[in-house]
Amino acid sequence: MPDARRPRLTPPIADVRRAIRETLASLAAEDAGSLVLVALSGGADSLALAAAAGFEAPRVGLRAGALIVDHGLQPGSDAIAERAAEQARSLGLDPVVVTRVSVVTDGEGPEAAARSARYGALDEAATELGATAVLLGHTLDDQAETVLLGLARGSGSGSLHGMAAVSGRYRRPLLQIRRAQTRAFCVDSGLEAWADPQNSDPSYARVRVRERVLPVLEQELGPGIAEALARTAAQLREDDDALDRMVDEFIEEICEPAEAGIAVSVAALGANPPALRQRAIRHVVSSEFGVTLTRAQTIAVARLVTEWHGQGPLDLPGVRVSRAHGTIVFTAV
């Protein structure tokens, strides 16, 4: 007699499990027997992820646990977190940890502040538990929304390439899975997902993209927009990774120490195409001074190479840039 607790293997369940299996298999090959943690909110995406991880992890020799972060931003958030924890335990995940955070905006928007608090809590808990990886439930739909938001903000390729499948200890196994599939997974598995009211609040730009912009694009341009945006993100990430490797290969050869900073050869920067030249400038400023330049600031620095006519130094946030003796000199301020 079949186990009544075991869900029937429907296509959504098979698809999600397959996606998780590929990620877990690669982790098991690196560190068999280690612990992976699912970042669980109780929503359909993370709940499907938790259920699939609980099923697949033992089959590849891994342990699966869950981390639930209570942001305290909604009435009853503690009960919502505990309900998610109970679901995780019922799915066989162990350990299951609930942690409450304080969301302080401190100049950030509410979404960014909540994200910072959440990742801080995830990092701390993963370190304490000795976890090999933390699994995040971002789907193909989330990726498409991220690309559109980056495009609207003019944020450059850094945001247009979307979220990485692997980023440090974080893994996103569901980036090729649609949100409709995770919802169907939960229905087919008899799991009741929590519907976060903020996910339908139009005051958030991401919600407006999800509920208004993407449907209009699908209606006017035809189906497959989300998939096309996700493919674009993947292609841009490949290009970005290649350009980053090229910069890493030559950047040390064209730099030399300078008083309170670093100097970069004008000739070497000028010999490279704009994409590499500007990427090298951003790399130097980011790695040496912890400053992220805007495109306008990066181009202003590049003009000291390509349009030099004796202009004075540039004062940018945290760094002064000048040209002297055939070099671009970056100094801390």
From TrEMBL:
Outline the extent of the tRNA(Ile)-lysidine synthase substrate-binding domain.
Answer: 265-327
What the entry lists under SUPFAM superfamilies is as follows: Adenine nucleotide alpha hydrolases-like (SSF52402), MesJ substrate recognition domain-like (SSF82829)
Catalytic activity, as annotated: cytidine(34) in tRNA(Ile2) + L-lysine + ATP = lysidine(34) in tRNA(Ile2) + AMP + diphosphate + H(+)
Per the annotation, which location comes first and is thus the protein's main one? cytoplasm
One Gene Ontology cellular component? cytoplasm
GO BP = tRNA modification
Q: Name one GO molecular function term.
A: ATP binding
User: What does the UniProt entry state concerning the protein's domains?
Assistant: The N-terminal region contains the highly conserved SGGXDS motif, predicted to be a P-loop motif involved in ATP binding.
Q: What protein does this entry describe?
A: tRNA(Ile)-lysidine synthase
